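Technical annex, item 7. During the second reporting period the consortium partners agreed on a shared format for inverse folding records so that results from different sites could be compared directly. Each record opens with the tokenized structure and is followed by the designed sequence. A conforming record, contributed by the partner at site C, is shown below for reference.
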């Protein structure tokens, strides 16, 4: 009987140790949940899998479709959109229609969740992501961890697990609380340090800054500026509006993810709250924070290089930019060839020189958080 008693004693000590682990607040609970693979069906994925803190909070894993889309917990399923960065996501306002009739904010590329709490609750139940069957099963996984069970009761209420809906909302709220911490938004990039007078920009970076915030020479400022004035502290480099940029279909992703070849991603129009056809093909303006180390680009990950993105924009104003440098063929047609913002007068701008293109890329590299600067090419 001694071995059995020893095992029981060991189990008792282990359980006591779990129970004694203190989780003092929602942020700490959210951090534990963010990195917990037990929230996925096969226990292979956590939030951090597709939003990796070591890689700018994006998914850097290779898949049969490259890095454009993410692999699910089942090891087979592939998404159809690129995982957006979770960095600085707290600054996207709740999804709403502004006085100008433009949709603004929300989470995901189409704003279908109003806020971070809504976003955090999505992936665990998504069949091609973390794959959990329902909220009750997620709660069963959480209750199996004594530290979680204790924390949920202390931070919310004693009866929290009696209602799976309420408990699941508490889980999402905790993850959102963690995502609102400075861990996701340190504002310590070279550009931030430059604004504080701690470093200087190179001549090329300085030219890129001037071009970026110019009212005459580029369109960057129209979408990638939140604050009233350029060069403001804590600038997130997105106004969180929605535009159709004429991005082509990512055929490589579609060849591998099982999505029908004739499927059209309607973007904002796929959001259940949006009904007007004029919003077809629009996607949320992404933050440019850490943009240089979070390739591939656009909502479907079709472009591999940041310079390609700048050239793609420039081709609408510059007839010399007729070839995609990554394919060495003509730019493919837009997936949704209507409402294309860059074809309108509002987005007309002078053609860029090669020197100016390189300068803009150099400037955007200065928006890289200090902990990721070693990843810059």
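Designed sequence (site C submission):
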């Amino acid at each position: 009987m001694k071995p059995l008693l020893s095992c029981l004693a060991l189990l008792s000590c282990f359980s006591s140790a779990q129970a004694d682990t203190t989780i003092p607040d929602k942020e700490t609970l959210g951090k534990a949940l963010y990195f917990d693979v037990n929230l996925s069906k096969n226990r292979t994925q956590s939030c951090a899998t597709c939003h990796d803190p070591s890689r700018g909070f994006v998914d850097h894993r290779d898949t049969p479709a490259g890095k454009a889309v993410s692999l699910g917990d089942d090891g087979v399923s592939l998404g159809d959109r690129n995982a957006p960065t979770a960095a600085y996501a707290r600054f996207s306002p709740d999804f709403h229609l502004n006085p100008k009739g433009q949709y603004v904010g929300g989470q995901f590329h189409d704003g279908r969740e109003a806020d971070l709490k809504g976003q955090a609750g999505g992936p665990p139940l998504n069949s091609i992501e973390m794959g959990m069957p329902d909220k009750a099963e997620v709660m069963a996984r959480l209750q199996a961890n004594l530290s979680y069970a204790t924390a949920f009761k202390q931070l919310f209420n004693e009866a929290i697990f009696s209602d799976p809906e309420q408990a699941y909302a508490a889980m999402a709220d905790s993850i959102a609380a963690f995502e609102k911490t400075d861990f996701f938004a340190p504002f310590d990039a070279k550009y931030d340090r430059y604004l504080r007078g701690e470093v200087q920009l190179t001549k090329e970076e300085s030219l890129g800054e001037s071009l970026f915030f110019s009212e005459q020479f580029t369109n960057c400022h129209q979408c990638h500026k939140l604050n009233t004035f350029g060069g403001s502290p804590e600038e997130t480099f997105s106004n969180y509006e929605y535009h159709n940029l004429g991005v082509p279909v990512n055929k490589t992703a579609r060849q591998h993810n099982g999505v029908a070849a004739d499927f059209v991603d309607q973007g904002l129009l796929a959001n259940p709250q949006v009904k007007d056809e004029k919003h077809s093909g629009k996607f949320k303006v992404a933050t440019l924070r850490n943009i240089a180390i979070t390739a591939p680009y656009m909502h479907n990950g079709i472009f591999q290089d940041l310079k390609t993105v700048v050239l793609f924009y420039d081709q609408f104003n510059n007839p010399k930019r007729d070839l995609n440098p990554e394919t060495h063929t003509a730019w493919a047609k837009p997936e949704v060839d209507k409402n294309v913002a860059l074809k309108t007068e509002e987005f007309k701008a002078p053609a860029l020189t090669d020197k100016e293109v390189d300068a803009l890329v150099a400037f955007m590299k200065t928006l890289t958080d200090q902990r990721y600067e070693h990843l810059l090419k």
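Residues 19-47+64-78+89-106+116-179 form a domain with the Cytochrome Bc1 Complex; Chain D, domain 2 fold (CATH 1.10.760.10). Residues 230 and 356 are 18 Å apart (CA to CA). All partners now use this format for quarterly exchanges.
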